[in-house]
Amino acid sequence: MDDIExxxxxxxxxxxxxxxxxxxxxxxxxxxxxxxxxxxxxxERALGALEPTPLPAGARERLDAALAQVVDEALTHDxxxxxxxxxxxxxxxxxxxxxxxxxxxxxxxxxxxxxxxVAAGLALLAGGVIGIGQLMPERSGDQAMTQADTSExxxxxxxxxxxxxxxPPGDLPVVIDEGRTTTATGEDAQGPLGDPVxxxxxxxxxxxEDGVRLAEEVQRRVLGxxxxxxxxxTQDPEGGGGADGEQGAAPDGDAAQRDEAQGDVEPLMTRDxxxxxxxxxxxxxxxxxxxxxxxxxxxxxxxxxVTIDGEDAAIxxxxxxxxxxxxxxxxxxxxxxLDACQVLRFDQS
Amino acid sequence: MPVTDPTPSDEELLAxxxxxxxxxxxxxxxxxxxxxxxxxxxxxxxxxxxxxxxxAEDATQETFLKLARNAxxxxxxxxLSTWLYRVARNVCTDHVRHDARRPSTPVAEVGDLAxxxxxxxxxxGTDAAVTVRAALDQLDPLSRQLLxxxxxxxxxxxxxxxxxxxxTGTVKSRVSRARARLAQxxxxxxxxxxxxxxx
Lengths: 349, 199
Description:
The structure holds 2 protein chains of 2 kinds.
Chain A: H1 3-12, H2 17-29, H3 31-47, H4 59-76, H5 92-107, H6 116-120, E1 123-124, H7 132-135, H8 147-153, H9 156-160, H10 163-166, E2 175-182, H11 196-203, H12 208-223, H13 255-261, H14 278-292, E3 299-308, E4 311-321, E5 328-337, E6 342-348
Parallel strand pairs in A: 2-3
Antiparallel strand pairs in A: 1-2, 3-4, 4-5, 5-6
Chain B: H1 10-18, H2 24-49, H3 53-70, H4 80-100, E1 105-106, H5 107-110, H6 127-136, H7 141-152, H8 157-164, H9 168-188
């Protein structure tokens, strides 16, 4: 703990008696330390001029109204679990949007049939093999089969759909396909929602630690750096953090700057061994980097290059955390134009 | 479940809410006490992420709906408050992603979470508030958000860490340094002279 942290802890009252006595002894003979402490006290007083964010008028009443049905059901039934969702009106637009979104979420289900063609053309991305087994040391060595191993043992869809217990531990969940023509509005644009590879990965129900580790590893292999971060994506300008668990952060969302820092980027390859052309590879990496910038701790698992209305686009299939439990079970399908990385469509299972 | 402590902990309140042997009114009161404790701060966190008060209120409602529905899934591995803020964070992230679904919305805009406004300051008109706000604007966005969460909104270091999915030690370090930098800016009287650290 440096002097700043010691003085902050002193002001917070979180130093133990021994540390407090030691600091007070130092303060008696150290003018610089006294000045630091005085400055921190001034900053604290200055922050006192700001008032905490107030609730909007009527917010509590609206929350109580929204909660009434759910709490009532929870208290009536045991265990308190229901899929019912109520959102009390705030603004007409916001309320309509929220209800619409929730209704859409309930309606959406993985669409296997529409992605059958995609599944048939699934191909590995990246030259090497990133196996979940390799990233989870608790798995035994004989389970750490490579993708090549498992692909010879089981057909693709059978492996992918075989579930948590039966799924091979060494499969690389990143696959790529290209060449399909689709639309941004049709059901088939949901793309990866029904993808068996993503479904199998979701069925693993990866806990946060394993999911984040896998996400970062895959991102490093595909992008040269993990861009997963917390809500904020800026790099610490003072060079701090990181040593005690902070996720690797993207430098201000600047893809070009990040590209310069990239190290061991692996070539993007299709299953049949073709290296994706440089322009497409660059586009995919650029858009995936931007897509992951919002702080997504997501595992990029499928990438499909498509043509939409004559324009090159990509449908990225990600596995992310369930908002309720932090378990990696949510499948997301993002359709982006490849030139400007603009979102055309977003779906989630 | 009898709770003798006149000020029950969050975890005790949650246990009371889930206790089917307790009176319905007691269970309901326990849940609403939790709402009393965290409603404003969850809203503050959501408003820090989402641009409008309406969106922040929607996200706050969703967060407490999840608490009501999924309380039984709380495993007690962390404090209830950090679990709640983590849920709020995920709900807000979902809202940001929803906004990104709209056609022609550049993805880059989705990534501006750290550029969101800090506390919705009702004291913005006072000289002192204007001065400190100008100084805060010169901090990097993450440090600014963490400092405001802890020093203004009243979150603990662990709770602020849950909001940003960081380690508690990282948050404590960032907040300490942000306080020191703020003190320096205020002492130098250079507030407003430097370009802000965000667009």
